[in-house]
Amino acid sequence: MFESKMFSLASRGIYVVSKRYFYRNLKSLVPRVRFAPSPTGYLHLGGLRTALYNYLFAKSRGGVFILRIEDTDQTRKVEGAVDALISDLEWAGIECHEGPTRGGTCGPYIQSERLDIYQEHISKLLANGSAYKCFCTERRLNILRRDAVKSQRIPKYDNKCRNLSHQDIKDKIKAGIPYCIRFKLSSDIQAYEDLIFGGIAYDVSLNEGDPVLMKSDGYPTYHFANVVDDHLMGVSHVLRGVEWQISTTKHLLIYKAFGWTPPEFGHLPLIVNSDGTKLSKRQNDVKVEDYRNKGIYPLALVNYITLSGGGFNHVVGEGVRLKTIEELSAEFQIDKVASHPSRLNSEILEECNRLEIKRRLRDDKLANEMIYALRNIITEKYPNEHLNVSEDHIMSVLNWATSRISRIEDLVGKKFGFLWILPAAKELEVNKNLLEGLLESLQGLERFEQDLIKENLRVFSEQKKVKFPVLMKSLRSVLSGLDEGPSVAEMMQLLGKVQSLERIKAVVR
To answer: Fewest CB atoms within 10 Å of the CB: 87, 139, 452, 455?
Structure first.
């Protein structure tokens, strides 16, 4: 297995140099970690996982979790995305210690407000010869790419402007030719110990030309701003998606050019569907907002992510409860994070949400919040009906429903509509004399419990010489007007004695 992973990475110029994990200073160093999304839209599940694992890592060691907004690509910036992102993080229970809305000693925490800092640091690289001005046009770069593809070579910049003379540079600037600033890559093989994947070494110059650090519009690229900000903000550990693993050695070269000590790096594996396919936007299994809108509770989603990605000993199943953020942070171990793709199983999410409903019912405050939320859902769904939405009734229904539903919204579907609506009196093909006798029989029950109700109904059917299934079918129609649902005795216990008898009376009279 190790050999196959090594072969796969080596095919990209990446070499696994050690199978062991490296945890230098992990226990002694108080960590500073960051989550640095771009405001290009919604927070997706992978982003939430990255933020969550950074937060748990910091929280487990008394460290600091920083939120930094990387908006250097102004063309992709979406209005309102930052506020939505912060809202999603807070909903999930992830608390920022430093960031755009919290402040801190290392701000600003929005990259577009740090342009003067990047200019200052790009000047240092130009001065020490690690960077240079590039005047190549977009047309020339496109021709290079096209020719490389045509010749079946790796498309990369040919470093043409690296060797321009000082006079050439002066003349081009005087002529007003726009330029970017590129970093001089070397064939120096950078090695580092990935906290999740182990030892990695990669000669980035094999597959890339000199990368752009500063664009012609004065905005830095991700690679440059990322390194500068992580250093100036004192970031000690970088936990990010595996898609950035191949860029890490390039970042290490930039750290080296500045003479800085880099942080520790750990790359989180991809999140995929249970069959190994990529998550799809069309299936609404990407946006955190979609989970929120579909009735998933934050702790359920958080546990779902940790159950899929590793880092903990807990599992989901019968008798297992959800872990709180505090419990998850206390148990988090980065050496237990899996290096293989995290497979999501929607059935586990449903079970997590079911467990969360049970947990909330045991907490008076959370139970009241859930009752209030369900009452609003019911009244919105049935605005013109006579409803039973008393606290006692809703609480009774929720306790009954914990093994039947995974979201409280399920309780307003057609199958469970009878729980809230008192059916209007209407002509039904029922024996009213029979129902009147049944009313008297049920009135005598001191305890209106499922087993006692069922036994009463069975005895009544024998006394009246009515087939039990026929009686049940008639009674189901009277109580709910539906052809499906729980058993009649269970339905009556759930409705309660008063409402069950009222529904029968409404048909008899």
So the answer is: 139
- Characterize the bridge pairing of strands 131-134 and 14-18: unpaired
Question: What DSSP string runs through 409-448?
Answer: GGGGSGGGGGGTB-PPP---S--HHHHHHHHHHHHT-SS-
Closest by CA to 297, choosing from 211, 212, 355, is: 355
Mean of per-residue pLDDT scores for the chain: 88
Query: Mutual orientation of helices 364-381 and 346-361 as an angle, nearest 10°?
Result: 110
- Cβ neighbours of residue 90 closer than 8 Å, sequence gap 6 or more: none
Contact 267, 245 (CB under 8 A): yes
Q: Count Cβ atoms within 10 A of the Cβ of residue 406 and give its class: 0-12 exposed, 13-18 middle, 19 or more buried.
A: buried
C-alpha torsion angle, residues 107, 111, 112, 118 (rounded to 10): 90
Least reliable range by pLDDT among 243-257, 265-279, 365-379: 265-279
> How far, in Å, CA of 355 to CA of 406, rounded?
8
Handedness of CA 267, 271, 276, 277 (dihedral sign): negative
pLDDT (average), residues 105-129? 97
Q: Which two tokens stand for residue 381?
A: 């769904």
Q: DSSP secondary-structure letter at 341?
A: -
For residue 157, which of 172, 140, 179, 173 has the smallest C-alpha distance?
Answer: 140
| 212 φψ region: left (φ > 0), alpha (ψ -120 to 50), beta (else) | beta
pLDDT at 382 over 70: yes
Which residues have C-beta within 8 Å of that of residue 348, sequence separation ≥ 6?
304, 307, 308, 316
pLDDT digits (tens, 9 = 90+) for 468-492: 998 998 888 888 877 777 889 998 9
Q: Phi and psi dihedrals of 337, rounded to 5?
A: -70, 130
Positions marked catalytic? 281
**137 pLDDT above the threshold of 50:** yes
Model confidence pLDDT, tens digit, residues 171-228: 999 999 999 999 999 988 889 999 999 999 988 888 899 999 999 999 999 999 999 9
What's the alpha-carbon Rg for the chain, to the nearest Å?
32
